[in-house]
Amino acid sequence: MxxxxxxxxxxxxxxxxxxxxxxxxxxxxxxxxITNTLTQAxxxxxxxxxxxxxxxxxxxxxxxLEVPLALQALAKKQKYDALVAIGCIIRGETYHFxxxxxxxxxxxxxxxxxxxxxxxxxxxxxxxxxxxxTRQIEKGRDAARVAIEMANLLKEINE
Length: 159
Prior knowledge:
This protein is an alpha/beta fold.
């Protein structure tokens, strides 16, 4: 809720309560061992924070460049309180890494802004597989927390 005299949000109430939320996840299959772990960690954290398993939808796409289009399709359904983008783009020796990382990130942001829908971006962009493995579980959990917190924040703002 907004503070009566300060014009600021009251952050004393928990924004990490997912009990009344519906969350969509779009997972890129490229680098599937990493993206599967990201997704598992995200789903486990969503449920730990109260999101019912039946209120979590998972959609898989080939790679990170396809994630924004799938997010857009889910956003158009107006069914979700927040979405999560999951992928893993590991730096290679060519410019392709920068292209995929930049374009997928820009696409995720565009969908969020165009639809005024929170999207937690958990598309990893590590230098190597070791960095991806190190980050996969915590980044999946973080994405769940971001999705829930931002969904609740937007609900507060729009009340």
